Amino acid sequence: MKVKLKGLQISNIAVGLPKETLNIRDYEKFFSAKDIKRIMESTGVESVHVAAKGMCSSDYFVELGKKLMEESNLKSTDFDGVILVFQTPDYIAPPTCTIVQDRLGLPKSSVAFDINYGCTGYIYGLYQAALLVSSGSCRRVIMFVGDTQIATLHEDDRANRMILGDGFAATVIEQGQNEMCFQIYSDGSGYKFLITEAGGFRMPKNEETKKSYTDEHGYVHWPEHTHMDGMEIMNFALKRVPPLVRESLEYAGWEKESTDLFVFHQANKIILKLLQRRIGVSEEKMPITLKTVGNTAGATMPITLSLKNEELRAKSALERVLFCGFGIGLSWGTATANLSETKIYKPFII
Predict the structure, then answer these.
(1) What is the rounded distance in angstroms from the CA atom of residue 79 to the CA atom of residue 124?
(2) What is the pLDDT of residue 219?
(3) Cα-Cα-Cα-Cα dihedral sign, residues 57, 62, 67, 72
(4) Is 53 buried (19+), middle (13-18) or exposed (0-12) by CB count in 10 A?
(5) Contact predicate 146/60, CB 8 Å
(6) pTM higher than 0.90, yes or no?
(7) Residue 183 DSSP SS3
(8) What local confidence, expressed as pLDDT, does residue 77 receive?
(9) pLDDT tens across 178-210, in order?
(10) Terminal CA-CA length for the chain
(11) Is the Cβ–Cβ distance between 254 and 320 less than 8 Å?
């Protein structure tokens, strides 16, 4: 799928990070100090933020939405659409988006969506919001992304606990003068590479799903917790992402050299370094921001913008921005945007 949508403006981007932090060095029950140092150097992660016990993703969305409105002087009545892109809903039913709509005081005439995506979620959220605004269905949409994903991990899941963190973002898309280009692909044949098996209707939770098992490759699975095959995800990303970036630049009519910024899903340092080399861009144009936040799933792209905003603004490096997400699904996609007039806030600690 590829499409160009007109009459758009990303006006605000805000990020929320939980107060509690966890230093990767504290995982001494898993690794020696020497091994921890080696892992930090390879993944690029030294610490992560952890959602408070009892706090759901929706709680962070609501608090972040309130802070964004305070800073931007927008009111709840200024929105006629709300989108949540996440994989940690309050309930199986009803959708969490209507609960957030009510808690934020958005008009009852607002359209509301839950979108079940992680790593590529920011692309999907931008696409859905842009469709609503470009079509004239909405004047202004607030799109939230992020997960309390550490709560989905098993306590003995060494690999994921060394890199995944909790983080959240809110993006406002409204009527404007800019064009956005989207290109999105899906390949469900790889759905098992990043999965939480139990808890849905295919595999309801029961006594058996509480037990772990080892697959034919020697990986331990906990069916009620998130499982990621890191090697398969890396191979997929290295194969699919570079040609997607080339296609997307061509479709947008941009040259790689004249593109100001490449904002990629922050999977881990190894993947990002390999992608930098294969695409042919420097870290200056394709920043790595994992050090103090880790891989925050769908929120990694707006978090990168928030952490790097002052530096990017000083270099006037926000006019031609290409977003790229890849992962769960499997899915991969890009979006282009002009952020030169976008208000991007420093992270709010919630």
Answers:
(1) 19
(2) 80
(3) positive
(4) exposed
(5) yes
(6) yes
(7) strand
(8) 97
(9) 999 999 999 999 999 999 999 999 999 999 999
(10) 37
(11) yes
